[in-house]
What does this fold into?
Amino acid sequence: MRVPLKLKFYYLLSRFIQKNKTPNFSLDSPKEIRNGEEFSLVKLKTFLSENNINTDNLSIKQFPSGYSNLTYFLKSSSKEFVLRRPPFGAKSLQGGHDMFREYNVLKNLKSQFTKVPDVYIYCENNEIIGAPFYLMERVEGYIIRPNLQQKDSPGKEIIQNVSKSLVSSLVELHNVDIDQANLNELGKINGYVKRQVEGWIKRYNHSKTDSIANMDFIASWLNENQPLEVQGSVIHNDFKYDNLVLDKDNHSNITAVLDWEMATIGDPFMDLGTTLGYWMDKNDLPELKLFQLSATTLDGNPTREGILELYEKESGKSITNPVFYYVFGLFKIAVIAQQIYFRYKKGYTKDRRFSLLNLAVISLSLMAKQAIIKNRLSDLFE
It folds into this structure.
């Protein structure tokens, strides 16, 4: 398989740039707010005070990771909070970024799935900070970031345990009683796969900036190879390492799952497919790991085939067409990258991290096409 020259070039460039920019394995910490993503504290303090939330000595910073909804850290003299709001320019894209929906998922899910932060208040008034937002508990802990290097890894045994905990937590979520969680209105399973395939193709076409032949090929393949539907579950739709908070004292334990903006009722195998889409194997081509979407090549991680085996064993379910779910996951992640790149190209965000996401789309589409050709999840380039 030929890798485009510009991917090879940026792979070499990234190795040079990232030598001194790789993160340590440390407690997740907020930073100063990025340029263009600030807002005034005056109206926010008034709103919080009116809702009996202490704002004495209130300060604000931003969690710099993440590519979609914006996450801020608020600290008063008595408590720490996390504020979530849509990204700037979100109105230009179709679907997603519904703050009330995300707030409601967390509020209702807590009784059945404890690995979610507590939520405190939702605000739909755009005049407070310029967009709807909600406030939730700050869960302090460690997060395995995508570009964590082997030398900074918490160790093979911990990584091995976390990968198993990831799968068991995903299965636990898929086993949530939808009625008990009062989440029946979150989505419907009938026609879910078809809606997802058509929806993500539509989102891609709406945000397209360049012609990428592999994306069009994959879209057609997904339309023609849809599997039979299975029983619906609560699904997260973005279940990966950097959305998991690890316990401060026992790093093998997952204490919270973050970023529920795409949660719905749907096919649990589609959820697994997204996790697999983020999962890079050690023997994947280095140029295609240019955008390391999850730190899954650290020692102790299983392969994508290994993740599938763990899920089937933990859930007691057999997946007859795993390649479809994996290819869908890659396509969906590619579309998300394309949507973010679209916002950057249109000037809705100034975050320089987004400037090369068109190359992530190319990379992910190459992976998906190779999986289709080989009809397997791992060893795609042998």
